[in-house]
Amino acid sequence: MCAAFHNTEKRKLPLVRGSVIRREYGNVISKITLSVWIAEEGLVRVAYFPGAVAEDEPSYAVSPEYVAPGAEIREYDEPGIHVIETRLLRIRIRTEEQKVDFYDIVTDEPLLTDESGFGRESKDWTGDCRVWIRKRLQETEHFFGLGDKPCALNLRGKYFSMWGADHYDFHEESDPLYKSIPFFLSLREGRAYGLLFDNTCRSYFDFGATDETVLSFGSFGGLMNYYFIYDRRPLDIVAAYTRLTGTPELPPLWALGYHQSKWSYYPDKAVFNLVERFRDLGIPCDAVHLDQHYMRNKEGFTWDLQNFPHPAGMVGTLKEQGIKTVLIVNPGVRINPEHPVWREGMESNYCRRSEGNLSEWKSAGLCNFSDFTSPAVRDWWAELYRKDIEEIGVRGLWNDMNEPVIFPDRTFPMDTRHEYDGMPCSHEKAHNIYGQCMAEASLEAMKRHAPGRRPFLLSRSGFAGLQRFSATWTGDNRSNWEHLKLANFQCQRLAASGISFAGSDAGGFLGHPTPELFCRWMQMAAFHGLFRNHSSGEFGGQEPWMFGLEAAGYVKAAIEGRYRLLPYIYTQFRRYAETGMPVLRSLALQCFENMDTYWRGAEFFFGDHLYVIPIHEPQEGGRFLYIPEGIWYSYHDDSLMKETGRDVWVKCPLDFLPVYVRGGAVVPRWPVQQYVGEIPRPPLSLDVWWAPSGEVESRLYEDAGDGYGYRHGECADHEFLFRGAPSSLELSWTCRGDPCAFHEAVEVVLHGLSDAVSVAAAMDGIPCGSVRRDGRVWRIPVEGKFDRLSVTWDRENPFSA
C-alpha cells in the first residue's frame, strides 16, 4: 500500500528504484534518443529525448512509492531490429526508425505497433515543441478509460482533449472536463493492453476519429513518454496501472456510508434540523458537507460567526449524533489585506506572471492563487488547516474549483509561472496537475493534524494518480435522465482509470429531479464508490424525504441496502488498496472475451460477486438486460436466472433495481445502522448463494474502521471457499488474525434452496442442531468460527441449473 509522502520532499524521477532494464537507441540525424525501460514482465516505459542530453522530467503520475520489480529478459537481433523478450512480451525495436512494436510472447500476435511512429514539431516563437506518436489501429480494437469523459464507454472513433476544465452543466460529448487521466485500455478478441501517456501538458487522444486505421496521441509540449502495460486480463492491467500510479490508502469506514450535501446548509440551525430529520426518519447518514456559506464572505479558513457562532460546538454535537463534518475549500485566496492567510500568501506563495507581477483573478470573488506545484507552498497550505482539523474537529475536506476555475477565461494565462517541483515552467505544463497538487497538500494537512485518523478528501480535478490522494466526483451535472446515464458511464470509466472511490452528485446538482428520477439515481449511487447527494439549493431541497412518502420509502431502502453491504464494500476497498483491483468493473472489462459486451454500458460489476444494472429511462417498468454466463440469482428475491450469456426480459418496478449475485458467493452483511459505529461490533451475516458445482472464493476484511491499528496486525482477513454439488455444499473458512474481534455474533444464511428440501448441517464434523428455515432462506448460527461447514439436503435441489 502506498503511504502519502511529505510535501517537503523533492519529487523524484520515475522508476528510480527496483530492478529496471534500460536500453537506448540514438539517431545522429534527428538527434533523438529513444529509451526503453523494462519495469515489469508486462510494463514498459518508452520515452523520446531530444538534444544531446537525455534530460528526464519529474513524474506527477508515477507514485514515489512504486518499486519496479524488473524482469528476466532475452535479447537478440533481427535485420534492423533489436528484440527484447519477457515472460509476457516480445518487443521489437526498429532501431534506425526508432519505432517500438509490442507482441504477445506466446502467439506473436501484434498488440500495439508503430505506424509512422514518433513525430516532433517546434512551435514558432516559443521554442516549445509539439510531440505525437501514430500507432496502427487494428480492425477489431476498442478503447476504454480516460477518466471522467461523459460519453458511451467505448471510445473507438472518438477524439479527446486532456485539459482540466470546469464545465458547468456539461452534456454528452462535452470535452474536456474536470480531470485529465491520460490512461486508456484496448480490448480486442480476448487480448488487452493499457497505455499511460505521462505528459502534463495539454494533450489529445485520437482513437481513429481522423484516420480509422490510426491510433494517435500527443501533446503541445513536454516529452513523448508513455507506459505500455500488458497482462492476460483487463482488470489485471487496471490493477497494474493503479500500482504504478499509486494505490490509495484504505478509507475510513464511515466515508463509505451516505453523505448529504447542498450548496448550502446554513445557519447552524439548518444543519441541526437536517440531522434531526435523518435520525427521526431512521434514514442512515454518516457525513454532512458544508459548502461556501460556512465561510465569512467566502474567505477560506474562516467561519461566518453570525451563522455559525460556535463551530467547534456544532461539529462536536454532530459527532455525538454520528455525523462527520466535511468542509469545502477552494484554491483561490480572496484578496483582503485584513485576512492573515492572504497576507501570509503574499510573501512567496502566489502564482505570478512571466514578468513577475502578481495577477488577480476572479473566482469566488477577486483572488490570488497559490502555486501548489511548490513543495513549500503545499507545506504552508497544509498548515492552514490546523485549527479546523485539530480544534474544531472537521473530519473531511472537499477541494472544489481546483482545475483551476477562473472567470471568464477558465484558467490562468499561459505565461503564469510555476515551480513544478524544482523544474520551473509555464501554466501550459502545470495546469493539468494544479488540482492534484492542491489535493496532495490537503491530504498532508489531515495526516499532519489528525495523525491517528484516516483522512477523507474529495477533489474535483486531478491527473493520473489522483487516487493516491483523494476520492472524486463527476462535477456539476443536471437533474435529468441523460445525466443519470452519464454518471453511470463516468463512474465506471473512472474506476477503469484507477479511481474507484468516485461518485456523482446523486439526483443532479442543477435542477430538481422528479420523484422517479431521484429514486433511480439514488438506487444506482448506492452501488458507486462514493455515495453523496449534492445539489444546488436554488432549485429546492433534494433530501431523501423531499419527494413524497412513496419515493422516500424507496430511497430509504436504497440507503439501508448500502449500510447492510458495508462489510462487503469495505472488503472490496481493502483489495483495491492492496492490489489496485478496481471496485467497479465494466461488463466489457470483466467479460472481455465476448466482444458483444464492448458496446454495453449500463451494466457493471460491484466488487467480486454483485452485478448491477441501473435504470436509465423514465417509466422503464421492464427491460432487456444481459446476464453473464454462470449461476446468477436476483439479489432481492433469490430467483435463479435460468438463461445466461444472453439478454433476458426483467420487470423493473420503481422499488426494484436489477442486482444479481453470483452462485457460490459469500456476501458478508450487517444489520442496518444509522451511522457507522452505532453498533460497536455488529453481528455478521455470511450470506451464501448455492451453486450446483464448482468452487468460488470470497473474502471478508475487518478492522476498527478507522485509525492505523490494522497496519500492526489489528485486523482479520477471512477467506471462504465454496464447493457446490446438486444435493450439498461445503464452505471452508480460514482467517489471518482474530476471527471474532470485530463482530459479536455470526450467522450463515443459505440462499437458493427450495422449500421442498430438508436441510442438515455440520460444523467441523459436529451436527448443528439449530438450523432453521426463515422464509426463503436457511439460517445456521455459528459459535465463534468453523473450519468447514457441510450442508446436505434430502433430494436434489429443484432450483439446480
Class of secondary structure makeup: alpha+beta
Number of strands: 50
Overall outline: globular
Strand order of the largest sheet: 1-2-3-18-15-14-11
Provide an overview of this structure.
The protein is α+β, with helices and mostly antiparallel strands. It contains 12 helices and 50 strands. The strands form 12 sheets. A 7-stranded antiparallel sheet has the order 1-2-3-18-15-14-11. Strand 16 and strand 17 form a beta hairpin. Helix 9 runs parallel beside helix 10.
Short structural description:
It contains 12 helices and 50 strands.
Task: Give a topology summary.
Elements: E1 21-27, E2 32-40, E3 43-50, E4 74-78, E5 81-85, E6 89-94, E7 99-104, E8 110-112, E9 114-122, E10 129-136, E11 142-145, E12 159-162, E13 179-180, E14 183-188, E15 191-197, E16 203-207, E17 214-219, E18 224-230, H1 234-245, E19 258-262, H2 268-281, E20 287-290, H3 311-320, E21 324-329, E22 332-334, H4 340-345, E23 361-363, E24 365-369, H5 375-384, H6 386-392, E25 396-399, E26 417-418, E27 425-426, H7 427-449, E28 457-459, E29 462-463, E30 472-473, H8 481-496, E31 502-503, H9 515-525, E32 531-533, H10 549-564, H11 566-579, E33 584-586, H12 587-590, E34 604-606, E35 610-612, E36 622-627, E37 632-634, E38 646-651, E39 659-662, E40 666-669, E41 684-689, E42 695-703, E43 715-725, E44 728-736, E45 746-751, E46 759-763, E47 766-767, E48 772-774, E49 777-782, E50 788-793
Parallel strand pairs: 13-29, 19-20, 19-32, 20-21, 21-25, 25-28, 30-31, 41-45
Antiparallel strand pairs: 1-2, 2-3, 3-18, 4-5, 5-6, 6-7, 7-8, 9-10, 10-17, 11-14, 12-16, 14-15, 15-18, 16-17, 22-24, 23-24, 26-27, 33-34, 34-35, 35-39, 36-38, 37-39, 40-41, 42-43, 43-44, 44-50, 45-49, 46-47, 46-50, 48-49
Helix pairs in contact: 5-7, 9-10
